[in-house]
Structures are given as structure tokens and as C-alpha cells.
Amino acid sequence: MENDILTMENETPSFVSPPKKEFCIGYPTNLALDNTFLIEHLQTHSLLNNLGDPQQGIFYAMNAQTEELAVLAYFAELYKLDKYWGYVTHGGTEGNLSALYLGRKHLGAPVLYCSDQSHYSVFKSADLLGIPIQVVASNSNGEMDYVVLEKLLKSEKKPVLFCASIGTTMKGATDNIDIILLLLKNYNIKYYLHLDAALSGMMIPFLDADYLDFSTKNIASISVSGHKFIGTHFPCGVVLAREQYVSNMSDIAYIQSKDTTVTGSRNGWAAAELNHAIQKRKTQFRGEVGNCVAQAQRLKKSLDRIGCPAHLNDWSNTVYFKKPSVEFCNKWNLASDKTIAHVITMQHVTREVVNKFIDDMTKELRSAAPSKPKKR
Ligand SMILES: Cc1ncc(COP(=O)(O)O)c(C=O)c1O
Predict the structure, then answer these.
(1) Is 226 in the pocket of ligand 1 (CB under 6 A)?
(2) What is the pTM of this model?
(3) Is 371 part of the annotated catalytic residue set?
(4) Fold assignment, 21-25+284-367
(5) Distance 72 CA to ligand 1 centre (A)
(6) Integer Cα distance of 110 and 160 in angstroms
(7) Class for domain 36-281, per CATH?
(8) What pLDDT was estimated at residue 113?
């Protein structure tokens, strides 16, 4: 069968060349990547497979366990989490699944509370784990509605596995974990609080050092994507939980480790690159967060000015607005739902890219405007 991607015998198979990254501005992925680490090390290393639990020692020899442990230590310090357990996942989705699994094991037969703005991985995880869901309505900026939440918690009889969104996918809104914790305490509910912090988990600590503080708040776990704010060539993420929640996992002789990770084989290259990026840029992260938020504020103002009212939540770089034409969304790779689309000003979305986008949006608005009836 003919296939454009496969080439004739003896020819080197080619890669489909991806579109230019400056037109990929609708998803929370940092595309301003440093290629040198992989170029240098791929030449001398083979498979890197972090099979098993990094805390217990990875028995399979070709691993990047040291790097993985360094990544976990960095995140634990960022969230002031003292006794922790965690691993480098394949992304935010696996982190959510892994943490909600821990929560379900801890609580027995809980009900999962999350907002209607939660990422689809939260609903999928509940389905996979067989946990009933209580969806809480959100307000217009995408944050959970706490009045609705309180009404629901008042009559809740089951333990609550709570998944708060720290930066929702479409609107970049952050659920207020202080209010959530207060309500859970006031109604005397047994709970496990997980934070889905795929993008904002790497931004908020640099905007408010106390918000994601495990040392003062009873947060059980957090999941963050590695390829989003930090940026890597392979999708990856980090899940961290308080150590106490993994004690009841079974031992597996084959890997000489406890069966704590969702998948068996795991991408050691992702752990190695993530660690390299952290060690190289950790003093720059605060500045990068500031730039991303500043570009988002510029973009919002410019969109408002050209007649495309835009919205931007606090601590966010997700600028959302009325969904433009399908052609326009495709050109800029804008993520959208039925009514809104967004741009996420990651590190590669520079001032120049924002300016180019605004010029194009100006044309888009003109072409979409109903033409004035001609004077007779
Ligand atoms: C809030 C939120 N949670 C989870 C995820 C899933 O992350 P990943 O794509 O790394 O699996 C995303 C992805 O955009 C997200 O926005």
C-alpha cells in the first residue's frame, strides 16, 4: 500500500516535517527547547528505562534513576513537601490517574469531587477506577462555584476524593484550595485532596510562594506536566504525594520494587532531559513565568483594543476569547470548545509572535464583520 510517510526500499525513512512552532500557540507546551542535551547524549546511550519505583532503587541497569530522583527533589522543595513519594510520569494524565488511585486506596469507596471545567483525564481516571463523580458547577471565569460546592458537601455521606484544578485547561482558572479545605473541615468530611496542576503547578510557586505549600495545607498529592512549562522533547510529568499514601502497595519480585507506578517501563530519557532543564534553568523560571504572564496581559489588551473581548485569569497565561473561524483556529493551532478558543503564551510565544497574531486577528475580524449595505 502506498504511504507518504514510508519511503522506498533502502531509502532512509523521512519525518513528516511539523508546522512552524510560532503558529502553534493554542496548547500549553514550551517549544523554546534546547536541543543540545539530547543531541550529545543520544549518541552514546542506549535505552533508558526507569522500570519500577525510583525511591526503592531501579533494578534494571539502563536507567536514569539519579536524574529522576533529582527531579522529584526539586518539585518536593518547590511545594515544601517533606516526606514524599513520586515518579516521573508520561504526563499530567498519568499523574492524575496515579494520584486518584492512591486516594481511592486510602479512602476505600469515595466519591470524586471535581468541577465541570476539569481536564478530561480526571473523568477518565474516575471511570477507570470505578469511582462515582460529583461534578461541581463553575462560574463564568472557570473557577469552581463554592456556593454550589458547600450545598453538596453539607449532605455528603461518603469520603471525598477531591480533585482541584490548578489552572483549568480552557480558561486557566485556579480553584481556591483554601476555601475547599475549609469546607471539607467544616463539614467534618474524610478527604484526600489532589491537585491537577498540569501547567500552573510550575507557574504559581513563582507568583505566590505560599499557595501550593504542602507544609501548611493538607494537600495529599499533585500532578504536573513536564513538557508544558519546563519543556521537553517527550511528553512527561511528575506526580508527588505524601509518603504515607503509598505504604499499602504490593511488592513485585520481577522488578525488585513495589508496584507503585501506573506503567511498568517508563521513559528514562524524559527524566534525564527534565532534570537537565531544571538544573540549567531553575534560577530563570521566575523570569520565564513573569514573561509568559506579561505577554498574556499584552495579548489580552491588544485583543480588547481590536474588538475581540478577551479574558485572562489571575496567575494565568491562558487568554480566551470568542471562537474565530475554523480556518483561523487551524492556522494558529488554537484549542477551542464550542464557543471559545484560547492562546497560551508559552516561552516561544514572543512579543513578535503576539504582534503577528494580532495583525492576523484584525484581518479575521474584518472578514467576519457583516458588510455594510451599499448606499443607493
Ligand atoms: C488541567 C490539565 N490537566 C491535565 C492535563 C493532561 O496533561 P498531559 O497532556 O500532560 O497528559 C492537561 C493538558 O492540557 C491539563 O490542561
Answers:
(1) no
(2) 0.94
(3) no
(4) Aspartate Aminotransferase, domain 1 (3.90.1150)
(5) 19
(6) 5
(7) alpha beta
(8) 99
Q: Where are the domains of the chain?
A: 21-25+284-367, 36-281
Q: Whose CA is nearest to atom 14 of ligand 1?
A: 169
**The C-alpha cell of 263 is what?**
506503567
The 10 Å CB-count burial string (b at 16+, else e) for 306-340 is eebebbbbebbbbbbbebbeeebeeebebbbeeeb
Tens of pLDDT, residues 277-313: 999 999 999 999 999 999 999 999 999 999 999 999 9
pLDDT digit string (tens) for 139-193? Answer: 999 999 999 999 999 999 999 999 999 999 999 999 999 999 999 999 999 999 9
Is 98's C-beta closer than 6 angstroms to any atom of ligand 1?
A: no
CA distance 299 to 316: 12
Atom of ligand 1 nearest to the CA of 118: 1
Q: Judge residue 139's burial from the number of C-beta atoms within 10 Å of its C-beta, 0-12 exposed, 13-18 middle, 19 or more buried.
A: middle
Q: Tell me: the pLDDT tens digits for 194-221?
A: 999 999 999 999 999 999 999 999 999 9
